[in-house]
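Quick one, tokens below:
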């Protein structure tokens, strides 16, 4: 006997999860853990900066460069998770009030555009990474190309998450934002 997911407390969209959905959920979780950890590390190193500057009277010069790397990770990888969870910034006013058929067309166009954007972002940031790999970031002496790796990862994630949304739409699965829960 089948149970009603709404009575079991389980979210309806979690009932029929494909392997690809679980893969995307795992990627999103790993991304959240990475960005959360980067945020904690950023807080700790800025605390060290303040302590070093005002208590020890010796400012740690590496903090600025490391913080820029962490901010790149937090910003780009975190934005990709927003695509997965439908919490990204978007103009949805007209789409939400359009008839259902037109709304589905708008959603498909939106996900296709995000897919294309993710592919372009991934490809061109990869080229930038390769181009900048030969130079060094001052004070921390690591390749400059490391700065653009989060952009490449973001592009790949946006591409994968957009494909997931298109698959859901093709299967007729209604998607909601995680903010709606």
């Amino acid at each position: 006997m089948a149970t009603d997911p709404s009575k079991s407390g389980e979210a309806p969209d979690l009932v029929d999860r494909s392997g690809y959905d679980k893969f995307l959920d795992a990627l999103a979780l790993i991304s959240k853990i990475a960005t959360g950890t980067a945020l904690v590390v950023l807080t700790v190193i800025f605390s060290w900066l303040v302590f070093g500057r005002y208590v020890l009277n010796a400012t740690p010069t590496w903090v600025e460069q490391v913080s820029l790397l962490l901010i790149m990770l937090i910003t780009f990888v975190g934005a990709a998770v927003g695509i997965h969870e439908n919490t990204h910034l978007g103009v949805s006013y007209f789409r939400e009030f359009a008839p259902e058929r037109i709304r589905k067309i708008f959603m498909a166009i939106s996900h296709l555009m995000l897919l294309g954007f993710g592919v372009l972002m991934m490809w061109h940031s990869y080229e930038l990474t390769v181009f900048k790999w030969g130079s060094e970031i001052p004070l921390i002496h690591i390749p400059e190309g490391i700065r653009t790796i989060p952009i490449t990862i973001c592009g790949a994630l946006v591409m994968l998450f957009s494909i997931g949304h298109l698959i859901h739409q093709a299967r007729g699965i209604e998607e909601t934002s995680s903010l709606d829960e």
